[in-house]
């Protein structure tokens, strides 16, 4: 009893001192709670489907940020990882008979392999060269998909694979929990020593190398990690849609990921995730204006960028929070002095 | 600045409210039919037009008799955007079922999308009549797992193997015409097929069928389905000295292929399937260079497969200003298919409608519809092909007009009765072909 | 991938030995390949030069480049079909209007966020999507076509070639010449070149960098419009037509070296020939032509990471 009380008190103090002090943390907690509680309030399969797909794409967008945002390795062919994950999960399920809980991680590993295969030749390329070269890989893979229709089903894709789970609510929970878990892991990675090295590579690769760090290894690590997470999202997508087709490899898919990530604000992880949760439901919401849907979407992206070129969520965070000039701790924007070191905030 | 922002916020909120209240309001005593398709493209427009005509016709008569009540038809349009995004297609389908609470769904075009949409409709036990996708797999699923997939029916076109069989008959017909009128002893055929999975079985079949018809296959060319320049392929085909190009196109490549072949006066006639050539816009899109191109088609002005065709085609042309293509068969799927089945069953319960619908044989504007069973006697919900049932037409562009040349005194087997539809014209050989081969 | 390609490529060649008649056919085949390679290479070159120019000068990866090409094509359609003017006028009007449109878009959407590389990138993607949708709303998704400047074809060494294709080839050469003169002989060219080399120093030397970037954007978009005017009569018009050339155009530019006009020109013909080789030597694999061309690009980059003629900028290490 005393132990429970102790933990309760500890939880309470953590909430009071760590969460409630910063609006962004409150938002994150509310976001978690909201997603986990949605099915209690609605059984609308349409709504659940949208949130499931949004979660799947949130993983994808966050994984792009891990590679391209943090390491600065502009990847314009992120659909490759997604597609490889989807196709390997589908193939393993259809021909290997492995259930989804096995195929999805294996699909992720397949995508890691793809990450290494394209990562190694691309190590020598930088910036725009890298971006435009990576754009080519999903298209080449698409050529292969069409060249071996016996295995891949050509333009029809691999259909009739196992469902993710029995019901829409179960699908929803799997996607949401996996998304929350993976995004937390990604966020933790970027907060770790590895993440700092990733970040440093983006800023000045030469300086990192002169500090005695094998940047090649870290860049490959970034490619594999990002590939793994994207592959998992591809695998879940395939099992949720019950089809893995060439549309997962299309250029528009790669572009979509970049739009999400940059719209939300790169080098944050939470930015891309938030952006998917804004833009994907927005696309659905705009259905009432069917003809103007994509046009409105483009307009929203253009206008937001014009005012918030660093991304929507970075802009929002800067509005509600201030950084202490002395100890670099974040504070709510309404405070006049820092909550830790009491330096004045301006 | 602040006030301006506030005003925009208020406006946006008002707008949101108006929209959400609009979507809630809807009727009660209607039969809701979801029409799903790529609404920004010709295929989706066909779906919608056909369904609109059907709903207007039914509602003008007071509706469908469901047991004691007359119920009107209400259409719900859903843009699947399936050419660009499969995800969009599935959410559109889910929305139709979960939000709009439709009773039936018609439409669908791109097979990858239809397979995914089919799964959603089946999960929710909604009757889904596919109008557009031709792949066999869609119906094989019914045989494999009848309990789950029995709510799926093929509306049009018949499956790809029947499509293949019909186009080989067209090929044979045109080959015979060339042989007789141009004195070509051995007619050479080049196969031009877009790179897509549905064409694979047709190419394989063509490679064996062509020698069987006493012709010679000289090669297979596989441009991408969305290629815009096929001059390279055309030069190669001309180099192969083919007399006939057997086309298997469903996508945009059909236009540049026909246009460039016409401009370069490639001395070979085109027969087979060219979906783009079925549309009225083809003449303009090829700038008249698609003259003499022949393709399989479902409808043509002035051609009657049965007594229902003329009324349908004429009304459609008058209403929408163009000849219907096969995606407009949403009309017959609703009017001749669903409506009658519902009246016979007297209920909207899909489990009661399926056994009635799958055994029905009924006339539609494109022919008589009957559903097939597979070799083991399992239901396929696949359209039956053949004389007396659906056959499709062989049509040719002749100086700006799409004319039908087949079936004209066609015998499926030597003992079968001759089939000729009303409004047939003779096939025309392009003048530059005549010039080159006639001595 | 490369394995299949080589295997398929060997088949016809192997058959040709020893048989004179077949060897004659081989000669014709080579002519075919050369001519269609030159033509598709010219199309790529026209697009790639404009794209490369604006990247070299302003470091803008303009994904909407081919979308401007699409808009120009629709412009020509309107002027010739709806107003009934001669195609040549349509061409002039389209180039002027689209150039203006390009400059306006640059001023409104790109210039304010130029310092944010990522934002510029997706702004151009969004622009391209917006153009696609607007064109889709006005003209629907149906396939349209525009008239050729010169109708008919000519038989060159037994290969039928459209006059329009010959025109494309000539225009590509002409544009290359004009650009060379513009860049090396005029004051604007000097300004463009110096901005391309070092933006900051150019600015310090009294060159109005923002204006040079805008002018370059104009020239680049104008080139896209011109390409549209010359190439589109050969193909079909539809709102999504900007996607396909986009990939090839980028591949050409990367292959040739970003910002290098010479490189883009050469890269265009290399990939053009690669495509033609696939179509003629492996007709069953004609759909692979894009994949093969992209694989070639990657192979070249493995050996020369900066492309054929690209240079690394020190500030960007």
- Biggest β-sheet: strands ordered side by side in the sheet of chain B: 2-3-1-4-5-6
Which structural category do the helix and sheet elements of chain B fall into? alpha/beta
Neighbour order of strands in the largest sheet of chain C: 1-2
Q: Could you describe the largest sheet of chain C, including whether it forms a barrel?
A: 2 strands, antiparallel
CATH class of the largest domain in chain B: Alpha Beta
CATH superfamily of the largest domain in chain B: Response regulator
**Rg of chain C (CA only):** 21 Å
Overall CATH architecture of chain C: Orthogonal Bundle
Question: What form of chain B results from the Cα inertia axes?
Answer: globular
Globally, the shape of chain C reads: globular
Helix content estimate of chain B = 40-55%
CATH architecture of the largest domain in chain B: 3-Layer(aba) Sandwich
Largest sheet of chain B: 6 strands, mixed
Write the layout of secondary structure elements.
The complex is a heterotrimer of chains A (346), B (439) and C (317).
Chain A: H1 2-19, H2 23-41, H3 45-70, H4 79-96, H5 100-122, H6 127-147, H7 149-152, E1 158-159, H8 168-191, H9 193-203, H10 205-210, H11 215-241, E2 243-244, H12 251-264, H13 270-285, H14 293-307, H15 312-320, E3 321-323, E4 330-332
Antiparallel strand pairs in A: 1-2, 3-4
Helix pairs in contact in A: 2-8, 3-8, 3-11, 3-12, 3-13, 4-5, 4-6, 4-11, 5-11, 8-9, 8-11, 9-11, 12-13
Chain B: H1 2-24, E1 30-37, H2 42-60, E2 64-66, E3 69-79, H3 86-98, E4 104-107, H4 111-123, E5 127-131, H5 137-144, H6 146-149, E6 152-156, H7 160-182, E7 188-193, H8 199-212, E8 216-221, H9 231-239, E9 244-249, H10 254-263, E10 269-274, H11 281-285, E11 294-297, H12 309-320, H13 330-345, H14 350-359, E12 361-364, E13 367-373, E14 379-383, E15 393-398, E16 401-406, H15 431-437
Chain C: H1 2-16, H2 20-58, H3 65-82, H4 87-110, H5 117-139, E1 153-156, E2 159-162, H6 163-185, H7 187-197, H8 199-204, H9 209-231, H10 243-256, H11 261-281, H12 289-303
Antiparallel strand pairs in C: 1-2
Helix pairs in contact in C: 2-6, 2-9, 2-10, 2-11, 3-4, 3-5, 3-9, 4-9, 6-7, 7-9, 10-11, 10-12, 11-12
